[in-house]
Amino acid sequence: MQDAGYKMQEARCRIQDTRSRILHLASWLHPGCILHPESCILKLKLVDLPKQSFYTPFSVKGGFAGSLMEDPGARIDIRLLDELRRYGEFDVIQCFSCGHCTAVCNLVKPGEAFPRRVIRYAVLGLRDQLAAAKAVWSCYYCGECTAACPRQATPGQFMDAARRYFIVQNDVTTLSRRFYTSPGFTWTAMTILAVFLALLFFATGGRMVTERPAFFEFMNYTFLHYLGYAVMGLVGLVFLLNFGNMARSIMKAFPRAPAFSLGSWARDSVLAVMDVVQELALQNRFDDCKVTKTGTPEPWYLSRRVMHMSIMWGFLGLLGATTFDFLFKEPGSHVPLYYPARLLGTSAGLLLLYGTSLALWLRRERKGGVSFEKSYLSDWLLLWLLWAITLSGYLTEIIVYLPFGFFLGYMIFLVHTILALELMLLVPFTKFSHVIYRPVALYLHALLLRRRARTMPLNWSASRYHPSGAAPSPSAPGNTGT
């Protein structure tokens, strides 16, 4: 066969769950591949291998052998699939790689192959390749792939579990693992933190004025101010370290690009940011994910896109209102309802309250598609925290305009402040962190793909990605100008 122009590879591996593993390995390979198990020797025959093939041999390190795009030293971990199962319920071991999930997914662009490709990564134990996969963060979990799967392999649930898994893997503190897998730890940690904060606030303030609402006499503003700085600094440091882990994982999938000018890097960075903003600002891709159990489209006001936009823009609006108050308003001073920051906060709060209420209702009733059929503590915790913070914030706003102060009013403000601080502290360790990880992952992929497209042949970028505004350099190898 070698004389006839075929390329043959051999690799030795350990066989576990022989039947399913061999089928999975065979289905991952090139359509022309034939698999022969003989005494634990897998002979992989790649038929009609093109000159610039994406399939190259890789070394075997404690697991299975096969072929992987552009990675001659892929590392295999046979524990990967079992680790992923801790973060979701899925059954991708039933997958025989028919590609139906990829065919029905409306988010797949020409040349892409998710969720099929990332499922193969997990089944074969290719941890590094799975960690670097853009599809983990670009999937919107509409569940159409799960509904259409002929083997009930639940690819949508797998993608959701993969996101949780890599939030945990990127976390340098390892606290995310405990919050995602241990309800007892979660409730204990939140209770201890709430009691600790309450004691701090009573120790540094605690004076309840009854003649008028005086929240910043009850709670020492200077202490709260510097405590907020400390919390933001701590959270920012953890995220910075976690981003380093994510960046290293993603950059492993991209060969080192030749040096470019600073202007070229700046241009590609700006274009990458524009790509991310374009995708996330209006959540347009949710319009391609409208799958319900009955197949009938939901009303626009119950759609996942409206729900996510309400939560996202509501939260950002409240963050903006808080920032404006801090910059331009004297702490504790009285302002009318039409004061710009107050008006922005009130309007944004309505959006957030609607979005979180809708999400809680859909999860409780298990309506709105596959993504709402199974909920975990991480899902409920984020939504209930946002909902409770928003509601207690509205109650606090009402109390501010009353002519007197009272015990219950001060307790509501205390609960609101403690919940807000808990949310900030838990951002890197809970589902809320996806609002940071997803944009960062999409940005890194958009940037690195542009750098790669300038130095690689046209057929590389055309095979999997289509970054706009990143035409390969005329001098790039393999660029024939066609």
Protein architecture, described:
This protein has 482 residues and is mainly alpha-helical. The protein has 2 domains: 7-170, Fumarate Reductase Iron-sulfur Protein, Chain B, domain 2, CATH 1.10.1060; 182-437, Fumarate Reductase Cytochrome B subunit (Up-down Bundle). The chain is 55% helix and 5% strand. Strand 2 and strand 3 (41-46) form a beta hairpin. The protein is globular. The chain starts with 6 loop residues before the first strand and ends in an 18-residue tail after the last helix.
Low-confidence stretches: 1-70, 457-482
N-to-C span:
32 Å
Q: Based on DSSP secondary structure assignment, what is the total number of beta strands?
A: 5
Task: List the helices and strands in order.
Answer: EHEEEEHHHHHHHHHHHHHHHHHH
Mean pLDDT: 79
Structural class: mainly alpha
Beta-strand share of residues:
under 5%
CATH class descriptor name of the largest domain: Mainly Alpha
**Can you name the CATH architecture of the largest domain?**
Up-down Bundle
Number of helices, counting only DSSP H or I runs of 4 residues or more: 19
Shape: globular
State the domain count: 2
Largest sheet report: 3 strands, antiparallel
Task: Order the strands across the largest sheet as they lie in space.
Answer: 1-3-2
